[in-house]
Amino acid sequence: MSRYRLIAVAFIAAITVTEHSPAMQWQTTELHYQRGTLAAPVFAGSARSDTDILTLQHASGWKFGDLFLFADYLDDRHADDFNDDDIYSELYINFSLKKLT
Fold this sequence. Notes:
alpha+beta, 4-stranded antiparallel sheet
């Protein structure tokens, strides 16, 4: 399965799972595509190459707090072992003391 298909499946799964949760109060999910020319750092050869970045981000409020996550997929189309089919993601889950008590 290609990386683009994997990101698309994750996007659809995130919408489907969170949309039907009884604890969900609000949500927003976005998919972004960016393309540009980036320079690799010196240790990776300093080559400039066209780079595709696909970002999935989701934020939601729920019964006990809120949640934010994002995942970036990068492909610079330059075989130098830097930004070649890389995925970077972060997840933040916050619990509200007020909502818990």
